[in-house]
Amino acid sequence: MKNAVIYVHGKGGSTDEANHYKKLFNADYEIIGFDYKAELPWQAKEEFKNYFDFIAPKYSESLLIANSIGAYFSLISLSEKPITKALPISPIGDMENLILIMMKKAKVSEEELRAKKIISTSFGDPLSWAYLSFVRNNSIVWNIPTGILYGKKDDMTSLETMTNFAHTINASLTVFDRGEHWFHTEEQMNFLDTWVKRFIQQIKSYQAYLA
């Protein structure tokens, strides 16, 4: 059986992004873009688990590459799934902190959000008491070998927050000084490619050791 690389895009992304990784892996790997529909974390927990229960038995090993909110959804959903290695890119590692920052920016208190349930903002998604409550009651518990890629210019997660998150889940953290939350420039993608290739080589070396 082949191995699988499951790619999970971020908000506004698409499964087409998975094609980028085809050049990095040899014929032993099938690159699969996960076209999930969930927009809320409790939806994601069910959808992501069901998807991996369906897809994982078809492959010898599964490698996870996930972006931003897609990484967050993966991390809260797939901790017990047979994933050989996880490579989250710009993951939302502390969703509660991000929501609290958004609340502060919108000048919304917890009491107000609890009372109104949903409050629209002028800068993006509405604030939701149900969302905040879910995040607080569903902490990320993750024991799968993981390497995180983070851009130092990330405007959604601070370096301190990402460093603490990496430490919490015992993940290696690679920081690109000229990286942003969305890795998209030629320089950023070249750095990303080199980062992925390094982990591929580590996996190969480990497999050779076991052989």
Structure description:
This protein has 211 residues and is an alpha/beta fold. It contains seven helices and eight strands. A four-stranded parallel beta sheet has the order 2-1-3-4, with helices on one face. A two-stranded antiparallel ribbon has the order 5-6. A hairpin with a 7-residue loop joins strand 5 and strand 6. Helix 1 crosses helix 2. The longest helix is centred in the C-terminal third of the chain and has 25 residues. The protein is globular and about 55 Å long. The model has no long low-confidence stretch (mean pLDDT 95).
What helical percentage do the residues reach? 40-55%
- Class by SSE composition: alpha/beta
Count of individual helical segments: 7
Tell how many strands the DSSP assignment holds: 8
- Let me know the average pLDDT: 95
The profile of the biggest β sheet is:
4 strands, parallel
* CA gyration radius, whole angstroms: 18 Å
Strand content: 15-25%
Question: Termini separation (Å)?
Answer: 16 Å
